[in-house]
Every structure is written in structure tokens, then in C-alpha cells.
Amino acid sequence: MRRLRVGVIGVGHLGQHHARLYAAFPSTELVGVADIDPARARLIAERYGVSADTDSDKLWPRVEAVSVAVPTSVHHAIVKAGLEAGVHVLVEKPIAVRPAQARELVELARSRRLVLQVGHVERFNPVISAVRRHIGRPGFIECHRLSPFGERGTDVDVVLDLMIHDLDMVLSFKPGPVEEVRAAGVPVLSSTIDIANARIAFESGCVANLTASRVSTTRMRRLRVFQRDAYVSVDYQTRQGVICRRVAGTGQRPTIEVEQVHGGDDEPLKLQLEAFVHAVRTGTAPPVSGEDGTAALELAHQVLEAISAFVQRHTG
User: Fold this and answer.
1) 230-276 pLDDT tens trace
2) Is the pLDDT at 153 greater than 80, yes or no?
3) DSSP of 192-212, one letter per residue?
4) Strand pairing of 116-119 and 207-213?
5) pTM recorded for the entire structure
6) Domain span(s) for CATH 3.30.360.10 in the chain
7) How far is the C-alpha of 182 from the C-alpha of 310, rounded, in Å?
8) Which CATH class is domain 4-122+269-289?
9) Residue spans of alpha helices (H) in the chain
């Protein structure tokens, strides 16, 4: 089988791993990388014996598909250029800064019949695959995503940087249309919001409570889902899960059945890139489509609007 010609644009903290995996896949040929830092581009390119560029436009004629792992502020411009060049694109989350930009990219990919996948990598965490079939109609969802402060990702606020992972995950459980969003957040160490909490009520009656922080002393990535007769807890970092089910007892009181789940050792990013390559090869819809990325971004902006309204109410 002919290998798919691929490239990576942005080979910093995350993009370097896209390059590593593409270089290792038997189904792909990594032909080049691009980064605005010429030394960084050369370093990664030399590691895999491919070309290095500082201008991503030089990659388009030589590839069939790319990963875009650049700062969020330039997602729209680079993804648009790639789609206009006829290249399939996997763009790291969020799909863009503004919902209108995201919708433009989705329409462009659709009109060109190209795959546009968004890098919401938690969808590919093996522990999520292990517990998803046990999640039916959530009544309450709780998410915590906490990280120590670092410069990476601070070109956007914590909602677009971290919380958007959990917004996408909540939407993947199909809770239905949003009824109300209430939120609060404050800047701490950067010029944008560094810690935020959102309460999202859906018309179905489901409520999601999400907290995201990039000014914490410890790292946490947890999800809890409560529904009638069951409770599911997930630790993304350890890939451990707990499923608690209500079972009928012999007496008046029901009993609780507890199942421990381990998601396995597969690398989520590897699974994500394999899904992207499969979608490109088969012409099928990717697991996390441009539409999915747009829905998460639109909900993120509802959270940001709610934070802005909260600040205005309390500062006069």
C-alpha cells in the first residue's frame, strides 16, 4: 500500500510528537516539517531525515495531509491555506479563536471534500473508550482540569486552552441543546483568564459543572458522570476508571456494584493520528470532525460571555 505523504506545521512541545508518530507509522511518509523557529525546524527535521521550512506554504505542494500544532491565534490562517491547497488537515484544539472562523473552515473542507479533524485528544484516551458504553443519559457531569502555570498556551484564555477539552467531552455525551450558561473566572498570572468555573444546564435536564485552572500547584484531569442507577469516574492521567451501578438487593435496600476499569497503555495521540489517517484514506468522517470542534468552540464562547457578564455585574 502506498504511504500517505504527511507533514507537521509547528513542531514545538506537541507537534514534535506528531512528527515522531508519523515517521513511525508504516502507512505514512513524513516528508517535511515547518516552524517559524528555524533552529527548531532543523532539529526535528534532522531527527527524521526530512526537510525543514519556516514557511508552511512550502509544504502544501508536497503533502496530502498535515497536522497543524501552532499557537491557536494562527490556526485559522494556516488551516485555511492548507484546505485551499487541497490538503487534509488535523488541527490541534481549539479549531480556531472565533466561531465564525471555525464555520468558515468547516464549509471550506466540505466544499473541497477534504478531511478536517480537530485534536480533542481526550476522546482517544483509552479509559474513555472503556467507560463510554456505560454512559447513557447523564444527569450531572463534573469536570476538573488543573495545571501549573506555564507560558505555553497563554496566547488564549484558560477556557480555550484547557476547558475546551471538557466542553467537547460533555457534548460528546449528547446532552442536547444548551439552556443556560453561568460562569466566573479571573486572570491571575497572565493578562487573560487563568482560572474559570462554568455551570451549563441543558434542556434535557443534564447539568455540567466544569473547572479549569492553569495556576494550580498540582495537575488534575478528572471526569465524573452521574446518571440514574450509575456513577462513572475517570482519571485521564492514570487512565483509571470506576463504574458504580445500583443493583436490586434481596431486602429493602439496593446494593452497589463497583467495577474498576483500566484503559490500557495505548498513546491517545497515536490513536488520534491513526484515526485521521484512516479517515483520509477511506474518505470517511473523522471521529472528531470540524463540526464537533466548532460546537465546542461555540460553547466555549458562551462560557466566556457568561464570565464577562459576571465580571460586569460585580465590578459595576
Assistant:
1) 999 999 999 999 999 988 766 667 788 999 999 888 999 999 999 99
2) no
3) S--EEEEEEEETTS-EEEEEE
4) unpaired
5) 0.94
6) 123-267+299-315
7) 8
8) alpha beta
9) 15-24, 38-48, 75-84, 99-112, 126-131, 158, 164-172, 268-282, 290-315
Do the beta carbons of residue 64 and residue 3 sit within 8 Å?
A: no
For residue 168 the three cell numbers come to 467537547
Task: Strands of 151-194 (E only): list them.
Answer: 178-186
Kindly report the three-state secondary structure assignment for every residue of 207-242.
EEEEEEECCCCCCEEEEEEEECCEEEEEECCCCEEE
Rounded to whole angstroms, the Cα distance separating 96 from 76 reads: 5
Which residues are paired to 220 by β-bridges? 146
Q: Residue 115: what pLDDT?
A: 98
Q: Indicate where the chain has its CATH 3.40.50.720 domain(s).
A: 4-122+269-289
What CATH code would you report for 123-267+299-315? Answer: 3.30.360.10
